[in-house]
Amino acid sequence: MEITYVYTRRRSDFGRPCNFSDRPATVTVDILPDPSMADAFVLRNPVHTSVQHVSDMSEHEVNTEQVEVESRGINHAEGGWPKDIDSQEVEQTTRFRRRVEKDENYVNAIMNLGTLMEHCVKQNNAINIYEEYFGEEELAELEDERPSAKIINVIRDPNVTKRPATYLSWHPNVFKKLAVAYSSLELQQNMKDMSFDSYIWDIENPNKPELVLEPSSPLVSLEYNPKDSHVLVGGCYNGQIAYWDTRKGGLPVEVSAMKVSHRDPVYGAVWLRSKTGTEFFSASTDGQVMWWDIRKLSEPTETLVLDITRKGLLKNALGAVTLEFEPTLPTKFMVGTEQGIVITCNRKAKTPAEKITSTYSGHHGPVYALARNPFYPKVFLTVGDWRAQIWSEETKESPIMWTKYHLSYLTDGCWSTVRPAVFFTTRSDGTLDVWDFLFKQNDPSLSLQVCDEPLSSLRLQNAGCVVGCGSKLGTVTLLEISSGLCTLQRNEKALITAMFERDTRQEKVLEAYHREMRLKERAKLKGPEVEEKAVESPEEVLDNVRTEFFQVIEEELQRRAQAEAPRLPGKVRGHAGEEAAAQGEGNQLPEEEEEEKDAAKAL
């Protein structure tokens, strides 16, 4: 069955046809020369003249009203199976299909339906008039272009009272959909006139959200399920966990109970790559990490207290601000805290104390962004205070690379999904920085002023070409970056591997040197500490100090007396000098006198 398209147009739509024929020339007007005009004649050589034989046209532009487009659809539920066939059982449905496909009536029905379907396909036929047919030939020219980015769309909070866009999540399959969580995190903010809603947007229709999510408390985090794109999970400002099914509307399907939820806002909720696709874990500033299953949100399946002293005390726990989970490392995850410490955890450890494996401390304030490099999982990026740092799991004390200190606070960051040497950061002055440390390490390759208000969130599309930036006033700006920043360069992986290995090796050597110096200092301080422990009473300590003081004074007086004593000519003080004089050094005096006499005679 082949589908063909034929496009026709009536001849009358092209206008009246032109008929040309040969005929002799005729004189229409004969204008005689005027002798009085001869004095005004100016000879020009050569002469250029242009003649217009069509009517003059003018162009006029007006602003038309915005067209609001609404997307509508239907939910298809699988049905039509016989009563004795369970549609959820794969074996039964497969056996039934095989039996039906062998029936002759099935083949005839398919042929009849094919004609009807072909007619429907032709009705819905559309042509992309902007399609580029010669894009491959232009790739060579685009490689040398300068890094750039252009704004392709702007999505604004539809409410009167604006709220910060705290979290962005791209649809895992359809790159035209973006889920945005809106919440005000300022202390004692007036919440009377502020909406709790968050939205799912179609980036091609930014005038109206595709779906309105209606939580009981403002959403701080929101994440699509990578296995089932209809399901989203969100962390609320009051600590509750909720999940939505877009096929069932904007109300949450289920919400966790307050008594088993977090006590502070949920800053991170990440899906686990389990077989069921229903498990996720969350983190909050109350110092807890909880694991959940959307099939049973009545209580968490597991809880971890972020106490780096490994005592499991909630009062000593560090507040979590960001979560990181790499599917290739299913048992490991990382948590960025308010205190500037990054905690590495192992979920499969036997005891809670063993689940916290290591810590990294390098920021003066909260760690607002934490992400592993998608090409090198052992290398991760942290963003906090006024700079971004790149760490290796093999170096615990200091990062292997870091940016300069900026004048404004850094708020978020992420790695490129297609280039291992590129990462993005946002600042509180509304600037988006694109770093490509393969070519430039001191400054960003591209700095773009996105808006005037502070940027609060950042998320890169899986294809790596479109980046979304959320601001404090709820404006989400979508930017398309140039092809050079989203196309893997030649030998880039080999160069980045060598760079990471070299920097990691250098940091290891420096850590070993600092560790050795600290051990030496401890060894020096160990002796006096033991003596102080042996002395019990303050009177004995005072007597010992007084004795040492007078002893030092006496030694200094003796040294000065020996230095001021007069030297006798020809003699050496001490027993060694007397022995040397007894062995014949006294004969040197007459020789010196004779030399002096000879010198006097010469004068």
How large is the count of helical segments? 8
Indicate the percent of residues in helices: 10-25%
Task: Name the CATH class of the domain at 149-510.
Answer: Mainly Beta
Number of strands: 28
| Global Rg | 42 Å
**CATH H-level homologous superfamily name of the domain at 149-510:** YVTN repeat-like/Quinoprotein amine dehydrogenase
Average pLDDT, rounded to a whole number, is 81
Gross geometry: extended
The computed structural class is alpha+beta
Layout of SSEs?
Elements: H1 90-101, H2 104-123, H3 139-142, E1 149-155, E2 165-170, E3 177-182, E4 198-202, E5 211-213, E6 219-224, E7 231-236, E8 241-245, E9 254-255, E10 266-271, E11 279-284, E12 288-293, E13 302-305, E14 320-324, E15 332-337, E16 341-346, H4 352-355, E17 356-361, E18 367-372, E19 379-384, E20 387-392, E21 401-402, E22 410-415, E23 422-427, E24 431-436, E25 446-449, E26 455-460, E27 466-471, E28 476-481, H5 492-534, H6 538-564, H7 575-582, H8 588-602
Antiparallel strand pairs: 1-28, 2-3, 3-4, 4-5, 6-7, 7-8, 8-9, 10-11, 11-12, 12-13, 14-15, 15-16, 16-17, 18-19, 19-20, 20-21, 22-23, 23-24, 24-25, 26-27, 27-28
Write a structural description.
With 603 residues, the chain is α+β, with helices and mostly antiparallel strands. The protein has a domain of 362 residues: YVTN repeat-like/Quinoprotein amine dehydrogenase (Methylamine Dehydrogenase, Chain H). The strands form seven sheets. Strands 1-28-27-26 form a four-stranded antiparallel β-sheet, with no helix packed on it. A four-stranded antiparallel β-sheet has the order 2-3-4-5, with no helix packed on it. A four-stranded antiparallel β-sheet has the order 6-7-8-9, with no helix packed on it.
